[in-house]
Amino acid sequence: MREEYFEHYCKITSNGYHLILNEQSNMKKKLWSILAILGFSTIMAHAQQWTPEEQLELFGYCEKGILMKELGISEETANKIGQINYWATLQKLKIEANTNDTFATANEVNQEVLKKYKALSITGDRAKGLISRMNATGCAITQIRHIKTYDTLTKVQLVAAYKSKFRKKLMDQLGVNGRQADMIIDAEAWKQKESLVVAQIAESDFNRIRKAVLLNKEYNKKLLLIDLTEQQKSQAVEFFIQNQL
Question: Domain segments of the chain: what residues?
Answer without folding.
Answer: 2-138, 141-242
